[in-house]
Design goal:
The protein is an all-alpha fold and about 140 residues long. It has one domain. The protein contains six helices and no strands. Helix 1 packs parallel to helix 4 and helix 5 crosses helix 6. The longest helix is centred in the middle third of the chain and has 30 residues. The protein is elongated.
């Protein structure tokens, strides 16, 4: 099989992995901020349904990012490709993946999100996926 065909196949697989791991979006940054802020203010004690919405959104995003990290990492291990193609997969993994998230990482990511959104209410109208992903990735990058 030619090198260009292999690269096209691997790029397609990477795109599919990333697309399948992207969480659904049904709220805004502002909505999620309003759900998460009271939860964080209570020292991360879950007492209300909105607390579970906050935890669930962050957990779902973390799980998807971790799955992407694991799946693309496995592809790099098993593919028969040039070092350049493998390096591209590793780069994609580092961009799109999230490492394993501990409870402390999760709380820190939620607090990071709250801190950012508290300072940038102009971003409240946007979907929270990118902001949440970046907060989680900051705590646990895919390596």
């Amino acid at each position: 099989m030619g090198q260009n065909i292999k690269a096209a196949i691997f790029t397609t697989l990477a795109t599919v992995f990333v697309a399948l791991s992207t969480p659904a979006h049904a709220m805004s940054n502002g909505d999620l901020y309003q759900f998460c802020k009271p939860y964080a203010d209570r020292a991360f004690k879950a007492e209300a349904a909105n607390d579970l919405a906050c935890i669930g959104y962050f957990k779902g995003t973390a799980d998807a990012g971790s799955r992407t990290c694991d799946n693309l990492g496995r592809v790099v291990e098993i593919i028969d490709a040039s070092d350049e193609v493998k390096a591209n997969f590793l780069l994609l993994t580092s961009i799109e993946g999230i490492g394993e998230i501990t409870e402390a990482d999760m709380r820190a990511a939620i607090q990071d999100f709250i801190n950012k959104m508290g300072k940038t209410p102009e971003k409240w109208k946007y979907r929270p996926d990118f902001s949440v992903f970046n907060s989680l990735k900051k705590m646990s990058p895919c390596e």
